[in-house]
Amino acid sequence: MTGALRARTRRQVPPALVAAAVVPGLFALVPLVYLGVRALGAGPAAVLDVLTRPRTAELLVRSVALAGAVTLTCVVVGSGLAWLLVRTDLPGRRAWAAVLALPLAVPSYVAGFTWIAQWPAVAGFWGAYAVLTTVSYPYVLLPVAAALRSADGGLEEVARSLGHGAGRVLLTVTARRVRPAAAAGGLLVALYVLSDFGAVSLMRYDAFTLAIFTSYRATFDRTPAAVLGCVLVCLAGLLTWAEMRARGAAAQRIGRGTARAVAVVALGRARVPAVAAVVAVAGIALGFPAWSLVHWAAVGSSTGVDWPALAGATAVTLQVAALGAVVTVLLAGPVGVLAARHRGRLVGVVETAAYAGHALPGVTIGLALVFLGIRLVPGIYQETPLLVAGYAVLFLPLAIGAVRTSVAAAPPALEEAARSLGHGRLAAFARVTLPLAAPGVVAGAALVFLTITKELPVTLMLRPTGDDTLAVQLWSHTGAGAFGAAAPYALVLVLVAAVPTVLLDRAMRR
Amino acid sequence: MPRVPLMAAALALAALSPLVTACGSSADLTIYSGRNEQLVGELITQLEERIGGTVEVRYGSSAELAAQLLEEGDATEADVFFSQDAGALGALGGAGRLDPLPATVLDAVPAEYRAEDGGWVATSARSRVLFYDPRQVPEAELPTGLDALADPAWRGRLGYAPTNASWQAFVTGLRVLRGEDGARAWLEAFAANEPVRFENNIQILDAVNAGQIAVGLSNHYYWYERVAEVGEANVPARVHYVPGGDPLGLVNVAGAGVIAGSPDAEKARQAVEFLVSDTAQQYFADVTAEYPVRSGVSSTVHDLPPLSDLQPPDIDLSDLESLQQTLALLQETGLA
């Protein structure tokens, strides 16, 4: 590919954009400030003591192994499914697109519980691996499907006309096309696995988050937990940097005219195994937990459903998730645009900062927001605004990745043409790039919405007293061993998350 | 493309929908509760009626709430901490975050069920017990203590719940009582008997009822709750309280304390006082099947032997907080 295809250039970065991107970057530093205060407050000797324990190295290896295995599987499975859904004549692919994104709505602690209840022997590495893979492959599926949908078929056609076989085109032109999306999704999966507590605790897999949590629970000494948190942040920084390298330059459309529609690949005799693969993934990742929840609801010693409580929790969940999604996407916008359009040290720093907190378990982010929130903004402590801010800190990377990949796929040349016609920078962006990137941005908002609906630790610490989300109620009932009473909350949680998924699928259709 | 505005509109609409619940903390009293809403929600309603004014409760898990209270420091809005275990209260007390309780409150319970510095008081107790299947284990053959379970005759016939906090507290107690090496020796012997793992105590009880295992290590109240639910005739398992101060008979507590600098310390003290009052103690005895810590209260629902008849090991409950070493030891012996 020639230099003309470079997506990101060393053009002059607009100061306003940098300013707008630095704010969320600072926002994301909240957990890091807190970790610094906690870790250094104990003195360097205590920090060194935690770092040099053999157990710390052991935890690092275990966490990295789990994250590596899950990420690799998710990239393969997610990309493969995305290709089947977007580029082939798979029967019922529109319905499958919605169904296959839904496991994202299953909280890892629910999935973990259903697995361990069914097969107690699955505990350990493979149990954690299975659960985390089934709940997080959509992080790859969604962005890759969006990239494939918005792709120009012209390049593939050219490659075919030059005598390359379908397989080779897929592995070269198409793969290059989706590489940024797959890398962004893979990063999210890796960070999610590093930060997850639900699955590793149920599966008794001794990873970093379990150790952090135990440290709070065991000694109430927040220093070791903070030091381990710092290690996770370093790991996240490393992963983010690696992803930037792996992302590569996205292939850009050049030339005039509209994008050519992509030719649909006829599966032919491969149709049966393709359908079988899709059914298997949907069955394991969604069918099994859903069946298990219905089973609980039916056989649990449930004393009937408390409809008002269920309705209240649903309303609270919808509201905080919608608010959180809107705020997170607004904050993520400038960072995503900056990362898509420009290069340089500053861009890298801002982006890495935004991702840094994403590997931390929720309990650490929650405590960071408690520590700073009550000191800096006592007026909104344990009120909805601070809760929403907490969600933004937690899920900024989800939205940044979505904005960045969708803006990167909109050719800068079009925007430049608009500017040459007398539009200002902002107007050109709003009228040319934004409409092109809109589906991807909305996908990001939906992703954040979904993820907020099942968030627990930060919600517990920062929610207005008495405002229970579905996840909080679910936790409360399972904590009392009332699985039957908990099941309706879990089912509604999955249904609530299904709404944006279906809308999303519609928004994506061209 | 026209679908995108629709989606955005839907999001915006949901975000701007009016709040369905009142917000703003204008309560007279704020309680942070590590005890589950399903278990103590009704009791809190009674507490509200007793002390007057509005009571707000934030439910969470005891350890995280303790960490949160430590982070909030002086700025906290919490007046009372109602904890599932003594360790979390001990941590707050150690950090100077609990105000001493008045003697009237402390004297309501025996000395072993309150903090030495008067920072917290136990509100209910739970005993570690053995559930056993009388069809397999005649009373004469019941384990007399910890070391009896190391007998190879029990191989494959024991059950435990490795992730359960009460099991971990028992192992911590074992370490405190017998030292690291003594605890390791017993855990290795126990592991050699290939005990069956269960996800929770309810499953242990089910397995004993079904005759899958002969003996399960658990907490007493699961059995009483089950009996209240289905009748004693339909519960084959029986409860064995291990006597003689053996580590298997550990008694652990839930408790409460007043947060230092509480804006309404008087109301906070009244709330804790209520939790050790006859009314609340009767609630624990009848509803949650726990042991009341106040003498003279006994359950009208469950046939619980009096707490004073139990022979738990002599242990300072605030010593049960070295969970880190406990987990390391459990990992080492393959029981985690």
Features:
heterodimer, A: 510 residues, mainly alpha, 23 helices, 77% helix, globular, disordered N terminus, B: 336 residues, alpha/beta, 11-stranded mixed β-sheet, 39% helix, 16% strand
Assembly state of the chains shown: heterodimer
Q: What helical percentage do the residues of chain B reach?
A: 25-40%
Mean pLDDT of chain B: 88
What percentage of residues of chain A falls in helices of 4 or more residues? Answer: over 70%
The H/E string of chain A reads: HHHHHHHHHHHHHHHHHHHHHHH
Mean pLDDT level of chain A: 82
Most residues in contact: chain pair: A-B, 69 and 64 residues
Name the helix and strand elements of chain B from N-terminus to C-terminus, one letter apiece.
Answer: HEHEHEHEHEEHEHEHEEHHEH
Low-confidence stretches of chain A: 1-8, 251-257
Strand tally of chain A, please? 0
Rg on CA atoms of chain B, Å = 22 Å
* Rg of chain A, Å, rounded: 23 Å
Major beta sheet summary of chain B: 11 strands, mixed
Structural class from helices and strands of chain B? alpha/beta
Enumerate the spans of chain B where pLDDT stays under 50 for 5 or more consecutive residues: 17-24
Structural class of the helix and strand makeup of chain A? mainly alpha
| Helix segment tally of chain A | 23
**Span between termini of chain A:** 28 Å
Helical stretch tally of chain B: 11
